[in-house]
Design a protein that fits this description.
Layout (H helix, E strand, L loop, with lengths): L5 E3 L4 E5 L5 E8 L2 E8 L2 E5 L7 H11 L2 H12 L1
Antiparallel strand pairs: 1-2, 2-3, 3-4, 4-5
Length: 80
């Protein structure tokens, strides 16, 4: 399920919160590099180790791999 991303132009960050309360951030590092981070009430901030060439590519990676829906789909594959 896509997240509702909000831009904070002063800080250069985009933020979204997942249904389970996990908070995601995407930051523009320079013209061709974007990175991500996430945190929740139960865990510290995790920084992404991968960089992406566009916001859309970063957003797609986060939504495909790190959201609650992605984790549930992965858990179902692991059980099967």
């Amino acid at each position: 399920m896509p997240l509702d991303w909000t831009a904070h132009f002063v800080s250069g960050l985009w933020h979204a919160t997942d249904i389970d309360g996990t908070r995601f951030s995407i930051q523009r590092l320079d013209a061709d590099r974007w990175s991500y981070a996430w945190s929740s009430d139960c865990s510290p901030i995790h920084l992404g180790v991968r960089e992406f060439p566009t916001f859309e590519a970063t957003k797609a990676f986060v939504e495909r791999n790190l959201t609650a829906a992605a984790m549930q789909a992965y858990a179902k594959l692991e059980v099967a």
